[in-house]
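Quick one: structure for this chain?
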Amino acid sequence: MSTDSTQSEGPSLVRLRTGSATLVGQVRAANEDSLFVSADLLAVADGMGGHQAGEVASAETVDVISQMAGHRSLLELVGAVHQANRRISSRAAEDPSLRGMGTTVCVVGLVDEGGEHLAVLNVGDSRVYLFAAGELHRLTEDHSLVESLVREGRITPEEAEVHPQRNVLTRALGVEALVVVDAWLLSPCDGDRFLLCSDGLFNEISEDRIAEILSEPDEPEVLARRLAAEADASGGRDNITVVVAEVTESGHLPAPLAERCRRIATPTVDLEDAFRDPLSDTA
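Got it. Here's what it folds into:
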């Protein structure tokens, strides 16, 4: 399944052209991934849990996040992820067949009054990449056992790819009452291409190949379908969901990624007081 390309039409300085695709893959009986695409907000969620409970968890998550479309607050986006976490837990408590369900999520959304910046959020191992100036950058960090082992220097990235516990998550929605949401604030530049994806993509094709495809001079819709189809043809061991967004207008001059992207601390409680104005924090 795929969606038509979308051109931002709001008052934001940043304009995006988007495309998406989602496939069940070659092994799974159902697609437990969910996605949301609008002119100013993108999300991918990868559900988990038996008897299609993961499908419920991911769908609930993107439903909550979709209600933030048109808003311009990073606080609201972070709060929506927390709300999704509570909703999943509540649904599981009410319905025994849904117990144990959870989901990852990654989000890219325009924030602040003028829509000049992009917020990048994630929980779990669904990823956000940025392809800019011919290079692919992974913006998010996987909340997984193997990622922790790599960061600690106990295994190499190559060993992580074949580790028997590579699918074990250390953070997801619906697992704990409180969840930490990783967040970054980024100033986009014209020509930037963002990729949101579930692990069904990057577990099948290499980041080098992802970069090759994102470098091609095609519309985001074509690129999204191509990425998903190649992952499916390479094994399709999991559901595959891809969203590609290209910045067509930004109002920002080109700059190195380190100068235009910074991490934002997000507390698990008292969000309104602790996270009132992230753009004023220049630390």
